[in-house]
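Q: Okay, next protein. This is STAS domain-containing protein from Pistricoccus aurantiacus. I've checked the sequence twice, so it should be correct. Can you predict the 3D structure?
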Amino acid sequence: MIQHDGRLKAAFESGVFVLRLCGDVRLTLCATLDNQAQRLADIPGLKAVMIDLRETTNVDSTALGFLAKVALAVKGRLGQSPTIVVNNPDVRRMLDVMGFEKFFTLVEAPLVELDALAELPLARADVEAEEEGLKQRILEAHRILMRINDHNREQFQPLVELLEEQLHHTAE
């Protein structure tokens, strides 16, 4: 199992789902992020989604891909785009380069603070971290990022092709 210091916390209150990413968030949390994206699509009474990155020191591209998946999971369902709260200039720069303003409203401070966020348990796939499953999640995340803009498509095409080839050979 790969060690990391990233954590995820979440709360749902008055129709607002809040997901807080803390520390260095990497692919080892992506199954948990994926579970949250799928859960959002089914939450009754969902009115808004806020992703809080104020306690985030780093987010790798795989985790960014799954954040984009969160936005896609609620696209057309909410009256507004999901919000990302980010005050770290390095993390904000990553979001800008990746084109996240296309799917999210980016702000430096939330309108309302929620203090009662529960730590999310790691998804079983994050704990086991088997190689083929990790490759599948990395591939999915980067395919999502490539759909956002041409910069991402150019940046991640070699990685996607490599992973597709490796997974194809594994399947043979």
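A: Here is a summary of the prediction. The chain has two domains: 7-119, 131-169. The chain has a mean pLDDT of 88.
Q: Noted. On to the next one.
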